[in-house]
Here is the input.
Amino acid sequence: MSDATDMNGPVLAADGTPLKRSLARALRRQKTRALLLIAPLLLFILVSFILPIGDMLYRSVENRIVMETLPKTVVAVADWDANSGELPSEAVYAALAADIKAAALAKKHTKVAVRLNYEQPGIASAFKKLGRKAKKFDLEAGGPWKDQIIDIHKRWGEPEIWRTIQTYSPPVTAGYFLNAVDMRVGPDGAEMRPEKERIYNALLVRTLWMSLLITSCCILLAYPVAWLLANLPTRTANLLMILVLLPFWTSLLVRTSAWKILLQQQGVINDILVFIGLVGDDARLQIINNQFGTVVAMTHILLPFMILPMYSVMATIPPAYLRAAKSLGATDWTAFWRVYFPQTVPGIGAGSILVFILAIGYYITPALVGGTKGTFISNQIAYHISTSLNWGLAAALGSILLAVVLVLYWAYDKIVGIDNVKLG
Here is the structure.
């Protein structure tokens, strides 16, 4: 004992170093080893999840292209009174002539044209035509520029185009988010768009409502199936489980196409209804290219994601609980509702979260079977990313959808409790 301990000093380790320092060093080694083990996972999450979300949030407010492409014009038009109804001064047009010539020579004028065209349709043609002429501008001997530019395209003689340039000249803008909620930046601030241009609010409400309906349908269909899987003999339950998992072995596109064949007016379901006489051949049901078709197809596709969490929870509930409740005088319904059902709520919660979040993000199935009335907001996001190339608006719509999911997740945690959710 006297070899390891100094009566007047700290406790020493076997190698003579203070025991406290030796323990701290060993703990650091353990933490470093643990960090190195999970580093690949952290890197994967950072690259595939955190960075894309951060990039999406950045794109939803980024607006540097106007300032970088038209630097002199942005400075000159800043002092112009957009509410005066008058055109900017000659100095503003001269700044535009210099900027547009430099942008045209660098082939950048079309990019700012497309950006501003998102806010005011028709601006792109004014920029492109001016860009073609601007390559021959003599900035030293030319002028006055106001009349020349207006002669090239009459839109440059309208205050609205200059108001748009002035409004979207800052490097950060709320314009994408305003467009995503059917609003725009007007002379007096944010204002609602005309009635015929409002689509996104209704589309978001439709997405949430249909996702909730699909989740409810999955709960109603999955509950008895999960109960059977949990209470049948093991051999039979395993056979049924294969049938539940079978859709996962089939392509999503194939399953959706199969529903398209089944639901169309000349499809299998309508043929059967006509054959048995429930509907006439001239009165076939319209059950595709609408909300009904989307709900049916997506309920089938997402049903396994509801069955599996329910089954994993039901399989852990001892059957003796129901027998004990009945032996104490409870009816079959009372035993189920008061004893069995509360224990299955964690499985219902887990399945509901999975199905709802997957549903609001689907776009392939609604695009194929939903027509114009059964599409989701995710279809508009895909359209702006791949077709219109309005990535800022797509990012804003995605950010709003992410915020809605987080709010619903928070509400679910407050009402049900996320700790009660079980996957098995």
Q: What stands out?
A: Confidence is low (pLDDT under 50) at residues 1-5. The chain has three domains: 1-59, 64-173, 200-420. Residues 182 and 196 are 10 Å apart (CA to CA). The first helix runs from residue 19 to 59.
